[in-house]
Write a structure and sequence with these properties.
Blueprint (H helix, E strand, L loop, with lengths): L2 H22 L1 H10 L5 H18 L3 H25 L3 H24 L2
């Protein structure tokens, strides 16, 4: 397994798990209230699940990989902006920042390699 595949699988696992948590957890309902975005929790959860699954599908279908990695990076840009907007400390924002960097790297690598 190559580095890109391994990183894509890690990202996929994290996003699918977090998406399910987002859809099913009362704690996430409270978090989205704290963010001031309660109406976006379900959409966010589904986007995370679909993006995570898309990374796996994209290992065999390159356009799906680009769409998923780019979409997840964009989702994490929004997460980081939200964290900054509400004044969260840096340690609370690190998971979103790391996932942003990881998926941006996967996206740009997929453009570079065209596969």
């Amino acid at each position: 397994m190559g580095l890109r595949t391994g990183l894509a699988l890690v990202s996929s696992f994290v996003f699918v798990g977090y998406g399910i948590y987002c859809l099913t957890s009362a704690a996430m309902e409270r978090e989205f209230l704290r963010y001031g975005l309660p109406n976006l929790r379900v959409l966010t959860g589904w986007l995370e699940i679909l993006g995570g699954m898309g990374l796996v599908v994209g290992l065999w279908w390159p356009p799906g990989f680009r769409l998923s990695s780019g979409g997840l990076a964009l989702l994490m840009v929004c997460a980081v902006i939200t964290r900054i907007r509400i004044g969260d400390p840096l340690p609370w924002s690190l998971p979103a920042i790391i996932l942003l960097l990881l998926n941006a790297a996967l996206f740009f690598d997929s453009l570079r390699t065209r596969a």
